[in-house]
Specification:
The longest helix has 17 residues. The protein has an 8-stranded mixed β-sheet with strand order 3-4-5-2-6-7-1-8, sandwiched between helices. Strands 9-14-12-11-10-13 form a 6-stranded mixed β-sheet. The chain is built from 15 helices and 14 strands. By secondary structure, the protein is α/β, with parallel strands linked by helices. α4 packs across α5 and α12 packs across α14. The protein has 2 domains: 250 residues, Rossmann fold, CATH 3.40.50.300; 200 residues, Nucleotidyltransferase, domain 5, CATH 3.30.420.280.
């Protein structure tokens, strides 16, 4: 066995680890008939790298989600990750002991036809010690349903790849400790949580490869909307254009034969509920790593004040034709004095000179209440935040301007959000149209704060006079625009 271990380690150095065609160092060279000679040139071409798969394998996050369409390569990278963990041959992650894990599919049939098939396709038979079946024969495991596979590893022992399917129910996922779990497609939330408990003892990792066809499911709300708020989570998107092994002819065939309503999810891995989004073009290209903006033209703070609802604030920098949201804030249950201190502190932390910052607040802040004779806007001014309530609240126009900046027809983008703005990013991804012509009035506080800034920036860039727009006038403008849309 010791010689086998040394041999396996030496072989691993020659493995084409970033290609998923085969492991040629472990298999015999096939003999080709003369009619197949044309394929030899294809085989001897330089290897093509799937950059999105490479990024997935290089990630050190304990939780990884791959949102991909059909034929994008998501299940293949999930299978290869499983094999590398089991054999100890991972090219980017140091593995120092035998690894036991699960491959979780939705049904027995899907397990047999997809995840199990991928494992058997890319795991050389020489590395398999034993195959235990649920049904079928171990002499032809591809035609049956596998319970688990014992696999050789480079440590001279064996690792275990177990197979589970969600038809078995949550109870079937109890009682063991694991090093990793691969979910092929989106599992029920209770099974996902149960598997996380299986990883707890060993500090294990998991990855999910899925086409998001269930709309606003638990993955959408818990993972997609809040990915920036979770430190050890990484999300990846794979489309047909990312797969170097998918030809243009195959892409055109798939486009022609898929219904338009599912094409976005099948081709790009987007959530199918995106047609109801106010900003469907807001995607990962708009969310960027924080950086120092060398030559800013202007500084903005936008405030959407709240009482029982949270007070939301955004800090925005204008540079050239671009707007960058560099920070955000959303807190409920505090006084104007508390919010003012937080705003002043955040502004100082950013290194901004408050005298050079244009601070905009909802015009409703000018109103007085029976509980307080001093308006909210005046309270902010009294605490050192010199707000300007003369903002354009035309919602229809504001939403159109924001949408155009997130990405126009030519995919040109001019509105970007730093990754640390977790409140704003979550709201933008979950901002849906209501039953009528207006968005749902829920989780929109930082969006409103940003809308005031975008409209003021648009006014300045177009050299338009600032409209004196009260809350009542804004409502009239919105009704007028809706009437034009309906009857014009």
């Amino acid at each position: 066995m010791e010689n086998d271990v040394i041999n396996l380690k030496s072989l691993s150095a020659d493995a084409p680890l970033l290609q998923y065609n085969d492991w040629p160092h472990l298999t015999a060279t096939p003999r080709l008939r003369p009619s197949a000679m044309a394929q030899v040139k294809q085989i001897t071409k330089p290897p093509r790298k799937h950059q999105k798969q490479l990024a997935f394998h290089q990630s050190m996050a304990k939780s990884r989600f791959v949102f991909g369409g059909n034929r994008t390569g998501k299940s293949v990278c999930g299978a290869m990750e499983t094999i590398w963990y089991a054999t100890g041959l991972h090219p980017f992650i140091k593995i120092d002991h035998a690894m036991d894990g699960w491959v979780v599919s939705l049904t027995r049939q899907v397990q047999r036809d997809v995840a199990q098939a991928k494992i058997l396709q890319y795991l050389p038979p020489e590395w398999i010690v034993k195959t235990v079946m649920v049904s079928g024969s171990s002499f032809a495991p591809a035609h049956g349903v596998i319970d688990f596979i014992l696999v050789k590893n480079v440590f001279g022992t064996v690792s275990k790849i177990g197979f589970r399917n969600c038809e078995q129910g949550r109870e079937r996922f109890q009682g063991v400790s694991l090093d990793y779990v691969w979910f092929d497609e989106e599992p029920p939330e209770d099974i996902y949580d149960e598997c996380l408990l299986r990883l707890l003892d060993r500090g294990g990792v998991h990855w999910v490869t899925m086409t998001p066809l269930k709309g606003r499911s638990w993955v959408y709300n818990r993972i997609y909307l809040r990915q920036e708020q979770q430190k050890d989570l990484a999300c990846f998107w794979m489309s047909w254009d990312d797969n170097p092994y998918l030809s243009d002819e195959e892409k055109q065939f798939l486009i022609a034969n898929l219904p338009p309503d599912v094409l976005e999810s099948r081709q790009h891995g987007h959530f199918v509920a995106a047609e109801g989004l106010v900003f469907p073009n807001f995607d990962v290209a708009n969310v960027i790593e924080p950086f120092i903006i060398a030559q800013p033209d202007s500084y903005y703070i936008g405030i959407d004040p709240g009482y029982r609802n949270p007070t939301a604030v955004v800090w925005v920098v204008g540079a050239g034709e671009n707007l960058y949201v560099v920070s955000d804030y959303e807190v409920a249950g505090l006084t104007v004095a508390d919010h003012s201190r937080a705003i002043l502190q955040r502004t100082a932390d950013l290194g901004w000179n408050l005298k050079q910052v244009r601070v905009l607040i909802d015009s409703a802040a000018n109103q007085k209440t029976s509980a307080c004779e001093v308006s909210t806007a005046m309270q902010y001014r009294n605490h050192g935040v010199l707000v300007d309530a003369n903002v354009n609240k035309n919602m229809a126009q504001g939403l159109l301007e924001m949408k155009a900046r997130f990405g126009n027809a030519d995919r040109h983008r001019s509105l970007f959000v730093f990754k640390n703005c977790v409140h704003l990013i979550s709201e933008l991804r979950g901002y849906y149209w209501g039953d009528g012509e207006s968005p749902q009035k829920v989780n929109d506080h930082t969006i409103d704060a940003l809308r005031y800034v975008v409209m003021d920036w648009h006014r300045v860039s177009c050299e338009q006079p600032t409209p004196l727009n009260t809350l009542g006038q804004a409502k009239k403008d919105l009704l007028k625009s809706l009437a034009v849309k309906r009857f014009g």
